């Protein structure tokens, strides 16, 4: 087993990690994405960072493969980025081929939530489990399903849009055009909107969490409502898929028990007892290392 | 490929079919289940019917394997029936081993919804598809998920309890103790209860369907509400799993478009357009033949 590099390609930042044969991150780099500069430029800057990481190895060691997690939609089989709303400069591109040719290394590419899920599954909060659902809650809400060790893609490669599961058909309007989507209760902007409606203060989810911890009842209520919506969605997923481990990542998950406790408390009301008793809802353990370790894990199949 | 026998073991009836190497049902038998008589007696009566069916074959032909669909919970790997509320006489029994020894034939056993789903997937409404979700709506509501040709079991073998997905968290109480479960809107007893609340008439789902077809507005409304709940559940399943073919079976599905049209109409309001445009919700094509053909198909792996 050789060294690999795991890359988390985000809308604003690109994080890279040099990962050892023992799946430890030996060194990290972080640069601005600056996608507007276009594909060739972004790939060149990634390649510069990969080379800087590789240069830290001894002469007997080498980087053998690279894994990349990127925002969707993308085609993980063809290695192409599709129409990325937040990354127009590199949208609709054969990203994997261009990066692989530039590096002269094999490259694996998959959706960021799936890659982070692989990290948590193999090295973090899902370690030792057979199956797991990773729910990433940030600006948007998405998920990746791992069943019997393998990612679940669906027929058109878009499985995991659980942010738009309906948790209340007459509930809050969602920016997607529907009503009562999970994302309309748990996404960062949804938290800010609800708190602003209650108080007039337009602050971030992290600030609402800080106020909740200081005893602000309305801030607490925002997380209770969000956690309740999350619990309802998890109950339906657990009943339908009989998967027991739910790992919650993304920026909103940093609220920890403010979000997870009401989710746990809601579960028994919306699932069979035999099911809810076995479900564990836990916070991501690896945080920002999850996509790096997951991408490097994914790259193992190229070796 | 040899002849097989497919068996649909139900709460009140046992239906058996002799299935040809070309997957055609050549002959059928039907007996009362009479589970209260106990395991040995039920198995003996099934064996008598199997032998009667086998006796219709020529001397060059033979039955090579048997497949059985039965109510859950059951353990398809060990071949055991677990605690079956409606079949106490044969609950908690090594059903597959006992039947196999009695017949001197290999026997496969799985959950009735999964077996019917296999029938529709290979020979009915899901033929030619990669993946499919079969939702059976009768007294209860359950589902079987087929992904890339294989049944999805979940970690504890209980995937598919989509009758207890939440379609409205403040909705109708369900007998399971939760609120707003899909089953509380679409199950046969739920249809009767809603119609009785509206009219005072306590009639079956089939009778409500007949009244709806005669223009009874309140009967129509019962199916509109049921179809709407079904559409919300299907939208969430389609967003989460990216599976596009939904086949609806069970006695309530006999209402056909009374149920399926409002389901279809509800979908776009609760799923991305790119998803709802690709989803097909269709009625079971094989009806009561689905479990027989599915059970016989399942038995192929024993040959």
| Quaternary structure type | homodimer
The number of E-state strands of chain A comes to 12
Distance between the termini of chain A: 8 Å
Q: How is the biggest beta sheet of chain A arranged? A: 5 strands, mixed
Fraction in beta strands of chain A: 15-25%
Please give the radius of gyration of chain A in angstroms: 20 Å
Q: How many domains, in number, for the residues of chain A?
A: 2
Report strand order across the widest sheet of chain A: 3-2-1-4-7
Order of helices and strands of chain A: EEEHEEEHEHEEEHHHHEHHEH
Largest interface: A-B, 43 and 43 residues
Q: How would the global form of chain A be characterised?
A: globular
CATH superfamily of the largest domain in chain A: ATPase, nucleotide binding domain
Which architecture name of the largest domain in chain A does CATH use?
2-Layer Sandwich
CATH class assignment of the largest domain in chain A: Alpha Beta
Which structural class matches the secondary elements of chain A?
Answer: alpha/beta
Helix content of chain A: 25-40%
Number of helical stretches of at least 4 residues of chain A = 10
Low-confidence stretches of chain A: none
Q: Taking all residues together, what is the mean pLDDT of chain A?
A: 96
CATH names the topology of the largest domain in chain A as Nucleotidyltransferase, domain 5
């Amino acid at each position: 087993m050789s060294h690999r590099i795991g890359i988390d390609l985000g809308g604003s930042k690109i994080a890279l990690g040099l990962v050892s044969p023992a799946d430890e991150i030996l060194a990290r780099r972080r640069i601005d994405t600056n996608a507007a500069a276009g594909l060739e430029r972004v790939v060149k800057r990634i390649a510069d960072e990969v080379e800087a990481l590789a240069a830290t190895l001894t002469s007997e060691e080498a980087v053998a493969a690279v894994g990349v997690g990127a925002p969707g939609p993308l085609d993980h089989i063809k290695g192409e980025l599709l129409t990325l709303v937040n990354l127009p400069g590199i949208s609709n591109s054969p990203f994997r081929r261009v990066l692989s040719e530039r590096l002269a290394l094999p490259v694996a590419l998959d959706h960021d939530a799936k890659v982070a899920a692989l990290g948590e599954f193999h090295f973090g909060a899902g370690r030792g489990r057979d199956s797991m659902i990773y729910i990433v809650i940030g600006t948007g809400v998405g998920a990746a399903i791992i069943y019997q060790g393998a990612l679940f893609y669906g027929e058109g490669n878009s499985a995991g849009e659980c942010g738009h599961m309906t948790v209340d058909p007459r509930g809050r309007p969602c920016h997607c055009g529907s009503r009562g989507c999970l994302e309309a209760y748990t996404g960062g902007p949804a938290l800010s909107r609800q708190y602003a409606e209650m108080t007039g203060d337009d602050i971030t989810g992290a600030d609402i969490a800080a106020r909740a911890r200081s005893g602000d009842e309305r801030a607490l209520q925002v997380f209770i409502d969000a956690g309740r919506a999350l619990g309802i969605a998890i109950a339906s997923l657990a009943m339908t898929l009989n998967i027991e481990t739910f790992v919650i990542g993304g920026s909103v998950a940093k609220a920890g028990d403010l979000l997870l406790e009401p989710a746990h408390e809601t579960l028994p009301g919306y699932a069979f007892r035999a099911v809810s008793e076995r479900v564990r809802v836990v916070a991501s353990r690896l945080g920002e290392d999850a996509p790096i370790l997951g991408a490097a894990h994914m790259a193992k199949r190229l070796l």
